[in-house]
Amino acid sequence: MPIRFCWASRVSVNLNHRLSLGKSERIRGNMINGRPVKISKNNSRPSSVYSKFAPPELRYLIFKGFNPPPLPSPPAPPSITVPRRPSYRKSQIIVPHDRFRGVYVSKDRTSLYTKNLVPNLSNDGDVVVSVKDDDGTVNEYREWDPYRSKFAAAILCGAENIWIEPGCRVLVICSRDDEQFGITISHISDIVGPGGMVYVVDHKNGMTLADIAEKRFNIVPIICFNVPEHYRMLINMVDVLFAAPNEPGETQVAYINALYFLKTGGHYVLFVQADCIESRSRGDAVFSSMIRPKEFEFKRKQRVTLEPFDRDHAYLFGDFRTIEMVDPSCLVALKFWTAPRLYRGDREHVTIYEQLWDLPVYLLFESSCGYALLQAHDMLKVERNYLAIEEYISRFDDFFELIAYQPFKSTDEALVHLNANCKGIVYKQMLDFLVFNLPTPMEGGKHCYSLALVSGGISEDIINKTKIACQANLFHVDILRGVRMHIDKVINDIKPGDLEKAQLDLARSYCRQKLISPDEKKPKKEKRQISG
């Protein structure tokens, strides 16, 4: 009878078949490492004695008439396997990248580098190379490891343009694309250089973010939940929005932040993970959950998969609000006011939108340097689509008029104002500023004008204390976004660099306050103590 072989781990398949052997053969067949193994006639599974004394290494057992196990499945193709990082380093010649300013590459095109913004400063595991130039200056280059930062992997996998270059402003939302928090952020900081700014919004890695910002002077740390209304004073208009969401809802957060802070004609870089809602199509429908007119605001230029460095992940690169020919049928004039209707009788009623249609509109704009009051002419006659809004904003000098401006005396005063707004309370000095510079809010029981705000949290407090009709929705956010874009035309007292310095000082003060006493967690603890 032919002899067949099987794995020792498959011995439980036909143990009852071995009972047909002779006594001496059965004893030899049940010996493992010289120890007898008990076999149950009613149970084909190995006993606890077998599992206890079974050796981990490969063993063969001899059976009569037993078929061999199937062959193991072939290994995965190399296109979807993640290669191992090389264990040794070769001497490299570092040259500037031919497409991306601020990024350097080895001569064999296998490694990426960025010029270290702060000499003698590096993260754990960084490979730092010092190069002496012809003029005698020594520059440090940090290797941008694609195995630790997926953004570097996207560049090596064929990204055509990342739009992050020296001197630009970048807003980082939900940075979850690196092995250790801060790796991608530090390399973006190296690329933009001393003339650029990196605004980082995060609430899960506050201590790490604060430590990185203390060492890198071009990083503005914002330890806050992803609510743009709370940190609107800390961010200027940005050129690039970088988002690496970890949860499906964070994609909507990236969209809202783009409406607040991304300039017209700006760009976005979106990292799509496997567990995100859009990962089934590799990001083809990132904004499919939005209404159709919003899809034309985000024009996707390229999708880059990360094989062989990572699987089931991709980067999306695109433009935001490119002014070009768009099908007018897609730009629906949507009603923007959704407040409850004001009833003046049993049958007749009038909405707040209709009541304020022909009234003057004032805008309240807040920044880290102070707050300004402007008047917007013919604003309510603008159609509710982004092409009409962008055309209205482009004629800023024709439609916008500065009424008054109040600067902050110190960073502490700006911090008090920011904390009050986050709680939905109007700062006392700002309330006096509005009452002094605005006309009488009501005459004969009717409103005389309306005040447009970014934050809907303080609108109720303003209405209760001053009787001023306030409006706060995405349409007004879009209009005030135009004021943010032309802040240099609005306030002549602000010199170049003053706004960035004020934002950095205010953000660091706000960051230290959050780390010392995070007020988001206090109410929950108090409620638990009371209920217990």
Kindly provide the name of the CATH class of the largest domain: Alpha Beta
* Sequence of strands across the biggest β-sheet: 12-11-10-13-14-16-15
Structural class of the secondary structure composition? alpha/beta
- The percentage helix is 25-40%
- What is the β-strand count? 25
Number of helices: 17
Spatial extent as radius of gyration = 32 Å
The CATH superfamily of the largest domain appears as: Vaccinia Virus protein VP39
How far from one another are the termini?
77 Å
Main β sheet profile: 7 strands, mixed
Oligomeric state of the chains in view: single chain
Family: Belongs to the methyltransferase superfamily. Fibrillarin family.
Keywords: Methyltransferase, RNA-binding, rRNA processing, Transferase
Pfam family, one: NOP5NT
GO molecular function: histone H2AQ104 methyltransferase activity; RNA binding; rRNA methyltransferase activity
What does this structure look like?
The protein is an alpha/beta fold and 532 residues long. The chain has three domains: 3-64, no CATH class; 160-330, Rossmann fold (3-Layer(aba) Sandwich); 342-494, Nucleotidyltransferase, domain 5 (2-Layer Sandwich). Helices cover 28% and strands 22% of the residues. The protein contains 17 helices and 25 strands. It has a seven-stranded mixed sheet, sandwiched between helices. It has a five-stranded antiparallel sheet with strand order 5-6-7-9-8, with helices on one face. A hairpin with a 5-residue loop joins strand 17 (342-343) and strand 18 (349-350). Helix 5 (206-215) runs antiparallel to helix 16. The radius of gyration is 32 Å and the shape is elongated. The N and C termini lie far apart (77 Å).
